[in-house]
Here is the input.
Amino acid sequence: MGRVGITDTTLRDGHQSLLATRMKTEDMLPILEKHDAVGFRSLEMWGGATFDTCMRFCGDDPWVRLKEIRSRVKTPLQMLLRGQNVVGYRNYADDVLTEFIKKSVAFGMDIFRIFDALNDVRNLEKAMEVVVAEGAHAQPTVVYTISPVHDTAYFVKLAQTLEGMGAHSIAIKDMAGILAPYPAFEIVSAMKNAGVKVPIHLHCHYTSGMGSMAYLKAIEAGVDVVDCAISTMALQTSQPAIEPMCASLEGSDKDPGFDMKLLTEIADYWKEVREKYAEFDVASKSIDTNVMIYQIPGGMMSNFISQLSQQNALGRLPEVLEELPKCREDFGYPPLVTPTSQIVGTQSVLNVLFGRFKMNTAETTQYMRGYYGQPPAPINEEVRKSIIGDEQPITCRPADMLEPEMPGAREQAKDIAESEEDIISYVLYPQVAPDFFKQRKG
Here is the structure.
């Protein structure tokens, strides 16, 4: 089996989880040489919410960030790609997804971790196909959640399907931090025993306090790589910390063999940098046991509090927490990750305030029409009918309903875009990119 690999998430999920994704490129560059020297399996430094926030809040060009980091490190670079959502919050046409991946590879991206909120493999197909065609590494994702339909057999079957689609490796993504140690052992063991040959990566958040324990049991089961952040950018809602993970494995055949002195130097650097972003450093300093009771990520809880406060209805939070699992069941038990966490969460609040499905968001309507894909379990047909009437939901791959978007974007952005990557930024974020382009020009 050999040493366990560690992917370093400090440059992406670490600051996305702890500092509202506000980290600027200029604070990443001075320490890259040391990160590169550690021997990580990969550096996760792009994708997720970083693309949007780079332009919206940081005054950074996300493409320049990728280029600058690539020019300084030899370690493989990794990104989080939201399947057909690319790095946005809706499904984009295939031509947008294709151009985004091609340009990302040209700028030096190596590994694409690709996920879909519903685990609908049709929403991963095109991304995997293009990544493989471009000679990069396709790592589709098994999104972990807990429900009556999400048992070990479900996750194993999904992994086998993804391997059959050409995956170079597979990630198990525990975005809420709810994967307990023994289920982690069971799922990884079952995947290996079922003949999954490609490497298995495990990604957990530390939200519930179980992340490191889940990693150790998964390592015992033969997991190949785990995601960690440097200690001063770890724990809370981020990933488990690198240094104690290495210390726990020291002297075993799984020992990553990293230089602890070098890791300490990196941790000291990030401790100082983190202080610069104190105004965004609002993650709970303790673990969140609510996540084990309600199975919802911390961000959802803060959204509930915000939405109810606006309606002067904060006292109704217990009702919302009671409504959420019922609403999720009506939706066919989607995993609660972007964008389904926002859709189900907001709908649960509306159900409590105005009556069940008396007022529905546009996203709920599109979900019921099939435009987000196939949920893991059947949708409650009575609920669907109350929202979309006799309309028949689509059964094809949702992106098949979309017309090409790049030609229109090229036309609309021709006076403000300076490059092909600018046009991609524009088509993904038409409200955000123009202001950023103006700001960049000074």
